[in-house]
Amino acid sequence: MNIKAIGGGVGLAIAALLWAWALGWFSGDRKAYSEDPKVAELERLRDENMPKMDQFTEAQRRKQGEQFREKMQGLTPEQRMAFFESSMPVLVPMMARGFEKRYDQFMKLSPEEQRKELDKHIDAMEARGGTERPAGEGGRGPGNIDPKKADEFRKKMLAWTTPSQRAKFENGIQLLNDRRKQRGLPPIGGPGGGFF
After folding, report:
1. What mean pLDDT is predicted for residues 96-100?
2. pTM score, whole prediction
3. Which helix H or strand E contains 4, and what residues bound it?
4. Beta strand segments in 28-118, E
């Protein structure tokens, strides 16, 4: 199993978690918190702010997201993973549904419009530093993952998504990588690759 690829996937998922948190995608009805005080603080912060996020302006959401990222930077890799795991049962199905909707809309575009959308996304990726950032750098997830835990996580991801969604993830990453190749850029890994 490719630990670097899994670590990168976890890093992308943590970034997606922060994005979803900033957009207010958690319900706030969670009652059990981690025994670790730092993780529990983040879980409470996440749950307390989620119901209010739709009332915030974009600037307020961004500020909340920045504060949240700062708090996450003080966590150990184990604490990050604990927080990540406690959030994923809500995040993954919600993001998979959102991805599927955006994918379906994308597939209705003309080939020229699709190319423009792919280029816009690739340009944004490259502006953020491309695909070369290793896992663990800049708070993007743990650099080393126990292979047993990685396999458990993979099984949970399969349970939280449908076969149709996974097929669309794979096709989405293939479309993105095909366009990256046409532009002379290296491919990205992981299902969906943060594309849609």
Report:
1. 85
2. 0.57
3. helix 3-22
4. none
